[in-house]
């Protein structure tokens, strides 16, 4: 196996509060750190851990297509690995959630025989559960990228919450680096959702806090009233459960009958 190695880590949504000790240690020990951290405080923190920083954000200036931008980032990361360096790539949030270059770089590094690993980080989903006081283990969870949801036939479970990510680019098929909400995309998404939910169904527009001591944005309003002015590139749409799940009497009865000689163990309301 070649000597170069790649470790991909995330800063979480608030740097340095969200970064894990494991990620911090890898950054400190790296020969080179490639990063896509958007805020000066986060960059300053990374520099305090390791001065060998390479910023990936300038790739956005070299093309107006996001797919090409992400490929450039992955190839730049791989340059360091191919030089047989201990490389760490740092991304905002969780490094594997809506982060195409991290997956591209790991896949190619492994294909070339290098050791490549991703460490978990605090994601926007983690923050949403905390800020909205939601336990996904109670009712389940459905998560989709908004445009994917719009353009595919999805069997929505109305008994479980539905979260639609990247609302700010819903309906944008250009994959442009110039991110802006689409009036047509938002209109069609609302039309699709209102086939399953009442027009007046209360939903939540959510944006996690990214600066210490600042509160998250939590805006509740009827589904039909969502407008372009309500959203930006980081807005998430959260729809609570609409109907209660029906108890499966047959399997509950079977479970109670076959467990511990009929001892009741299916305490589901």
UniProtKB/TrEMBL annotation:
Entry's Gene Ontology BP terms: methylation
Annotated InterPro entries: 4pyrrol_Mease, 4pyrrol_Methylase_sf, 4pyrrole_Mease_sub1
Residue intervals passing through the bilayer: none
Keywords: Methyltransferase, Transferase
This protein's record includes keyword Methyltransferase: yes
GO molecular function: methyltransferase activity
Boundaries of every Tetrapyrrole methylase domain copy: 5-145
Highest taxon, organism lineage: Bacteria
SUPFAM superfamilies: Tetrapyrrole methylase
Protein name: Tetrapyrrole (Corrin/porphyrin) methylase-like protein
